[in-house]
Amino acid sequence: MTEPLLSLKGISKSYGPVEVLRSIDLDIHPGEVVALLGENGAGKSTLSGIIAGSRTPSEGTMRWLGKDYAPASPREAIDKGVVLIHQELQLLPELSIAENVFIGRWPMKNGVVDRKMMVERAQAQLARLNLHIPATRKVAGLSTAQQQLIEIAKALALNARLMILDEPTAALGGAETEALFEQVRKLRAEGVGIIYISHRMEEIARIADRIVVLRDGVRVHEFADSDTPVRTIVESMVGRSLERMFPPLAEPGKEKLLEVRDLSGANGAFDGVSFDLHAGEILGIAGLIGAGRTELVRAICGADPLKGGTIRLKGEAVQLKDPAQAIEKGIVMVPEDRKFQGLVVEHRIGENIAYANLDRYAGGWVTRARTAALVGKALAAFGVKGRAEQPASDLSGGNQQKVVIAKWLIRNPTVVVLDEPTRGIDVGARAGIYDIIADLARQGVGVIVVSSDLEEVLGVSNRILVLAQGKQTGILAHENANDVSIMELATL
Known about the structure:
With 492 residues, the protein is an alpha/beta fold. The protein has two domains: 6-238, P-loop containing nucleotide triphosphate hydrolases (Rossmann fold), CATH 3.40.50.300; 256-490, P-loop containing nucleotide triphosphate hydrolases (Rossmann fold, 3-Layer(aba) Sandwich). It contains 17 helices and 22 strands. The protein has helices at residues 44-52, 74-80, 97-101, 115-128, 144-157, 174-189, 201-207, 230-238, 293-300, 323-329, 338-342, 349-355, 368-381, 397-409, 427-442, 454-460, 483-490, and strands at residues 6-15, 18-28, 33-37, 59-64, 67-68, 82-85, 108-109, 112-113, 162-166, 193-197, 210-215, 218-223, 256-265, 273-278, 282-286, 306-313, 316-318, 331-334, 415-419, 446-450, 463-468, 471-477. The strands form five sheets. The protein has a six-stranded mixed beta sheet with strand order 6-9-10-3-11-12, sandwiched between helices. It has a six-stranded mixed beta sheet with strand order 18-19-20-15-21-22, sandwiched between helices. A four-stranded antiparallel beta sheet has the order 2-1-4-5, with helices on one face. Helix 12 (349-355) packs across helix 13 and helix 12 packs parallel to helix 14 (397-409). The radius of gyration is 23 Å and the shape is globular. It starts with 5 loop residues before the first strand and ends with a helix.
């Protein structure tokens, strides 16, 4: 085998008495895709940050192209050819796509930015990913999936020798994922080394040459064959036997909680959607990126305006002007971007839960005692591994998602909408989220789950509504649904 591009020896990282990485050895060779797996909190992001120059190891050494390597900043790592594509989006919304792609290294001509060249080069990178939108457009208003592809386009424009992809497909649908995989294959053929971090096991078998597993900051296993059974890999990640992933589905009741008829969005993202949601039912919504899934549920929850159609809640016609009205009526939503739409991550966990329930404080007075009682109940009920006084930013992705869910569920809502509920969450934490969803249904709550993960939407749903280009193409019963039948409807 060729000499490694990158070689890590004995890399450790501690924050005070807390050791998050312990003596990690890892080599990455040219033209190799190494999957780095582990539960949230296993140390994947910390290790990626050390390689990419945003964090400094407490112990250990690194070598890059045969020379000592200790980047003091991400810029220094980028200059050497090491690029990290973050799971969390890093774009500036008021700049154009082209400006974001080349930020800090704009092409120059005669001492000024060559905007024509910048736009042309950015447009070429977008085309590589099948993203057909003008590079001159502002990032503000683009979907999460489109922004994720722009982040990837930024890295492609750098001509990196080593790329770290952190959950690159978490917000992508099938077509966008295929375009990314095609670029990964081309980069591998060009000798680029790739560290690929993902919680989607089906992707690993397709894209990885070998698999390295971290658990609690320790490298616990390496699988030289990406065809290793998923159960074997997952059990290595969680350190225990994995009996099941999806809980059994309860039989829905006959009461109609939500009746949606001929609903159309003011922005044209969806048109003519009709469905019923019964008590104790989990309705999945599937479709490719751009099908109008998120726009539909945002409109149902009062976040986006409607052009036409009707919504009835427990038989009563409702016109929801904003999310506050929806919440008051008993319709709550867990958004797809928990860090920017679901939490104030710099604030304490307890404060985040309190913000969504201020109307429950008698007389409007927020006291430590009242907050402690409210928050303690929520954290215990949903198994959040954290303390009320901790910043939400300290939590893993799975526990952050549980906080977002908890802050709404203690209101005892009638309808709960979850948009991409397990995006960027590890396998072990996913099972906990699925248990919460199943428990809600057993309590008679109506649940709507939007997901890009076909296995997920098939596993948790009593019925599945499929959208294609803003149109409703069918509703499948659980027993009649599979990935083929969904994709057939999603591509009509």
